[in-house]
Design brief:
single chain, 402 residues, alpha/beta, Aminopeptidase, Glucose Oxidase, domain 1, eight-stranded mixed sheet, elongated, M28_fam, M28 family peptidase, Peptidase_M28
């Protein structure tokens, strides 16, 4: 499994050549374990970028194109906006808009993101499209949900205003250029191309099934990161769990989600369509995301669990020295299932919010971040949870038929 983790730990956004190759590796591995593998094709976008900058007053400031941004090469006056009220009142059709402070506290969800699209984000994006500036420069800082600094305000191929992000240390310079009221030159070297990818689902059916258990871990990465912790480690735990499962009463789906890091979540949507067409009861969904960080334990959190399942899980965690009870969190492939009322177990690192996130979505997310010794006990705990649920169901059947 250590060799497999090394194989996975490379930049692999959905639709790219590396991503395609790894889908094939996972497909072969799961087939060899005796699973029946379905392939669900979908369309996506692959993004490329070059050097981007603002040029004014004989100086050049490098900016980061926002992922999937439209390209831009032109000039315009800067207008600086710090509040939603300012945006509501501004006219900026022929200008380059600089967003800062209240407008750039957190990344904006992609337009009409299927699982979570807050009204505040919808309002900002709708206003920006209505105001229609030539381009947008977002002054951002450290992302609270990963290690990116500056973070991209937009990551959305459906948002067609060219945009880039720049660190907070440049706000005074941009403010100065805005006050001078003279044109600046802006280059956003960014382009996207249509691509195809697929979501694989590996299944085993029980002879007398009482429901389905889903075990998942997203296999794709962001751009510019090897994604070892997020989430090559999770996929490695997923495969080790898949190899040892022997449930005889639950159907099992092993799902290496492909596009969790993509603005369209296409693979997740295809799998949800498949589930809806089957109309099978989901007894449990387990999602594995960024586990096995060095210096941490494996954290297990619960959502929508019934008392008997929660009792089983708590007992197993208490008896496992490398496991701990984790906080509930709502950013990952388990979220659509939580919203549907499905019982969910979420697996991550115990220092996810105060350590591991410093590395995710950055070039620092290398194999050095992963504790290989945690992979086996984490997979064993998940196997034990499923085995305990199966034994409980078999006992219930026995007592009914006695």
């Amino acid at each position: 499994m250590k060799d497999f983790l090394k194989l996975l730990s490379k930049e692999r956004p959905v639709g790219t050549k590396v991503n395609t190759e790894l889908v094939e590796v996972l497909e072969r591995s799961l087939s060899e374990m005796g699973y029946t593998v379905q392939s669900l094709p979908f369309n996506c976008m692959v993004w490329n970028k070059g050097v981007s900058s603002i040029n004014a007053d004989n100086q050049s400031i490098t900016i980061e194109p926002n992922p999937f941004s439209e390209p831009f090469n032109g000039s315009g006056k800067l207008q600086l906006i710090k509040t939603l009220k300012q945006l509501e009142n501004i006219k900026c059709k022929d200008d380059i808009l600089v967003l800062a402070e209240d407008m750039t506290r957190t990344p904006l969800q992609p337009k009409n993101y299927p699982f979570y699209y807050p009204d505040e984000h919808r309002t900002i994006i709708s206003l920006l499209e209505k105001k229609s500036p030539k381009a947008i420069i977002a002054v951002t800082g450290k992302n609270t949900l990963n290690g990116q600094n500056p973070f991209p305000l937009f990551e959305d191929g459906n948002f067609l205003i060219p945009s880039g992000s720049i660190g907070e240390q440049h706000l005074k310079e941009l403010d100065k250029f805005s006050r001078l009221n003279v044109p600046v030159n802006l280059v956003i070297d960014s382009y996207k191309v249509e691509a195809k990818s697929r979501q694989i689902v590996a299944s085993k059916e029980a002879k007398k099934s009482v429901g389905k258990i889903i075990i998942a871990a997203h296999m794709d990465s962001k751009y510019n990161t090897p994604g070892a912790l997020d989430n090559a480690a999770g996929v490695t735990v997923l495969l080790k769990t898949a190899k040892s499962l022997k449930s005889s009463v639950y159907d099992i789906d092993i799902v290496p989600f492909n596009s969790e890091e993509f603005y369209g979540a296409n693979g997740e949507l295809e799998y949800l369509k498949l589930l809806d067409s089957e109309s099978k009861q989901i007894a449990l969904m387990i999602n594995i995301d960024s586990p096995c960080h060095k210096g941490s334990k494996t954290a297990i959190s619960f959502h929508n669990l019934s008392n008997p399942i929660e009792k089983i899980a708590n007992t197993l965690i208490a008896n496992s020295p490398k496991m701990s009870k984790g906080k509930e969190w709502y950013a990952g492939d388990h979220v659509p299932f939580i919203f549907r009322g499905v019982p969910c177990v979420v697996v991550t690192s115990s220092d996810f919010f105060d350590g591991a996130l410093e590395y995710t979505h950055t070039p620092m997310d290398t194999l050095d971040t992963v504790d290989f010794r945690l992979i086996k006990p984490t997979a064993q705990l998940l196997t034990d949870i499923i085995d305990s649920l199966s034994a409980r169901e078999q006992k219930r059947r026995f007592e009914i038929n006695r």
